[in-house]
């Protein structure tokens, strides 16, 4: 069994952002030498997600619209009594999901034709981390 | 370490459908010979999900009602400027989640008493794929 | 390759509850002896979830408010024709997600600074189970 663990760091300029990370993950998989295995991609901060979907600008707008409709940014969260203002970001992470497990087959990410991996930031403008862990042989 | 990768193909007659795939996955796990491990089931197309829940017709209707309420089919998605009409399907996949990791214990899927695995199609009537990858020993 | 499978049992006093299980999982990881691997935590009953987020009481209230808004408890689910009254609980599990895969690095859970793991119960007051399966070396 072989494993490799690396961390991707992000500090987005905007509070909310989508960053395509498929290539960075593919490079880690290649460095790992794993031919058959799994690659976990998981957002380590609790106001960010990992999203596997299409790299299409209109769809990204639709995602933001959906999340703003279901868990809007606003002042009325109980979490804000702690002094935070990011209650919506915790809920957005919950709805999108904070991780993906990518199959590695024959040494490559085994993704569908349109699957791209994104880091989804809901409360950025500070340094945050994603773990990428490859396990296999 | 042992691994086996297979792909399930779907071409649903209806645009939206739930297809129970627990038995097909169990057969792949058996073929793999893995006694202790993980079985990843992941929808490779970005308008489909994998859902682990009850095989009960009423509940399935409740799921469709929920998804139609939260991310309705309609003409008003930014994604549609590309000529597509399936913006809702991308969002439904996001809310349901596109994969499940099934534990394999003593050579069998280690599921709860009512857990059944479904392929959830949100934009069907064409050939689409799910990867099933078993890893363990 | 090494693996260890254990089951956590819950019987919450309230119908809906969040139970922090990070320490119980860390103890299982330690017992497994795995230094590099994955730890799957998955709710085996279809009206419960696993949630990785902040251990902050206000945020927990915000989560309950969100779920009650998106998939309210009520009498009007098709699933209830079977005699059940927990249609909302199945949908809440769907929105939150029923599992998390935790990375194990250097013999420890490799979580972010605020990541805590919770069992989320949506229809409790009876015995229900979570599988914890560690795989690695």
Oligomeric organization of the protein chains: homotrimer
Radius of gyration of chain A: 16 Å
What do the pLDDT scores of chain A average to? Answer: 98
Helix residue percentage of chain A: 25-40%
Which stretches of chain A are low in confidence, meaning pLDDT under 50 for 5 or more residues running? none
Terminal Cα span of chain A: 5 Å
> Which structural class best describes the helix and strand composition of chain A?
alpha+beta
Largest sheet of chain A: 5 strands, antiparallel
Strand content of chain A: 35-45%
Strand order of the largest sheet of chain A: 1-8-3-5-6
**What's the order of the H and E elements of chain A?**
EEHEEHHEEEE
> Based on CA inertia axes, which overall geometry of chain A fits?
elongated
Number of helices of chain A: 3
Largest interface: A-B, 34 and 32 residues
Number of strands of chain A: 8
What does this structure look like?
With 137 residues, the first copy, chain A, is α+β, with helices and mostly antiparallel strands. Helix content of chain A is 26%, strand content 36%. Chain A has a five-stranded antiparallel sheet with strand order 1-8-3-5-6, covered by helices on one side. Chain A has a three-stranded antiparallel sheet with strand order 2-7-4. Chain A is elongated, with a radius of gyration of 16 Å. The first copy, chain A, starts with a strand and ends with a strand.
């Amino acid at each position: 069994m072989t494993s490799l663990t690396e961390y991707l760091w992000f500090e987005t300029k905007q509070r909310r952002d989508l960053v395509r990370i498929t290539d960075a993950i593919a490079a880690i998989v290649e460095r790992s030498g794993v031919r058959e295995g799994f690659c976990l991609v998981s957002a380590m901060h609790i106001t960010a997600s990992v999203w596997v979907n299409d790299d299409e600008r209109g769809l990204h707008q639709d995602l933001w619209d959906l999340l703003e409709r279901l868990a809007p940014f606003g002042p009325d969260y109980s979490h804000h009594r702690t002094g935070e203002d990011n209650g919506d970001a915790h809920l957005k992470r919950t709805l999108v999901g904070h991780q993906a497990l990518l199959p590695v087959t024959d040494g490559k990410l085994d993704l569908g034709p349109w699957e791209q991996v994104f880091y989804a930031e809901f409360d950025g403008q500070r340094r945050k981390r994603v773990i990428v862990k490859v396990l296999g042989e």
